[in-house]
Amino acid sequence: xxxxxxxxxxxxxxxxxxxxxxxxxxxxxxxxxxxxxxxxxxxxxxxxxxxxxxxxxxxxxxxxxxxxxxxxxxxxxxxxxxxxxxxxxxxxxxxxxxxxxxxxxxxxxxxxxxxxxxxxxxxxxxxxxxxxxxxxxxxxxxxxxxxxxxxxxxxxxxxxxxxxxxxxxxxxxxxxxxxxxxxxxxxxxxxxxxxxxxxxxxxxxxxxxxxxxxxxxxxxxxxxxxxxxxxxxxxxxxxxxxxxxxxxxxxxxxxxxxxxxxxxxxxxxxxxxxxxxxxxxxxxxxxxxxxxxxxxxxxxxxxxxxxxxxxxxxxxxxxxxxxxxxxxxxxxxxxxxxxxxxxxxxxxxxxxxxxxxxxxxxxxxxxxx
Length: 369
Known about the structure:
The protein has helices at 19-24, 45-51, 56-60, 63-76, 90-95, 116-119, 128-146, 159-168, 178-185, 187-211, 227-252, 271-275, 290-297, 315-329, 348-368; strands spanning 82-83, 152-157, 215-220, 260-264, 281-283, 301-306, 334-338. It is of the alpha/beta class. Strands 1-2-3-4-5-6-7 form a seven-stranded parallel beta sheet. The radius of gyration is 20 Å and the shape is globular. The model is unreliable at 1-6 (pLDDT under 50). It is found in: Cytoplasm, Cytosol. Homodimer.
């Protein structure tokens, strides 16, 4: 790989498995590639052995540990991609919010956004290397350690989802309408905050790609809450700008573009719009009907969408569910995944059954076509 087109100034090992990149680009694949959201994490015993009692955000800031956690599922399973171990909430911290607790252990932020005045103390014009350099260092290290086995995902949260966390401080308790109320009561401040988040997300993705990420995903975990009207007014234009902004920046830097995935959970009403928003892949949650999504998405590659709770089923039931999923999605322009992240008490052996079934059945389907 020539130095002028590598993401980082140093060369990385040639890629041995480019299945997921070909699928993302819409190229023909001999079998369906598969990876899982949250594939590196709490359901793996080796994760707990490596992490021990290190706090979550401290873990994210330790490139050596992040590298180990990222590669663990690749060592255990026949996956077609790794995804860097990190969190979407690092961006609000870099923009000026103060961490109070790790996610799941109480309110994440000590100073959430409560009014338009609070937006003024935030900024996307921060030093990305000093604030988020640990992410980029971990990506480069992990890319080196992977030695070309599989591509490495970078990722970020989408602006609306980050805004919801910043306002509702989600782990503080249920405030299901607080952020949406902020949108309609304070539209000017909302556009300002979403615009800052858009800039931060775009810059963060570009720097991840520059560090070595070969594919990236934008997680819009709370997109469905907006409904068609608010999603189209506030979030969809921002998502489009992120896709364009990343590609434009990479072009200016003479860096090869990488596939981009958008995952807008529960935004079934926006599949067609998302397929035209500049992303190479549209991720689907488990409540979306694959055949319907195919009709709406046209030629864009789709990703998803087995219900994560199906991994609690018997291995035979998992295999049947995979076979049904593949029949509906087809084996081309498709990346198999769950409809959301792996649940923390999932049996790793059942994860392996899911992954192997995707490969086996899709290869058989391709051979018979």
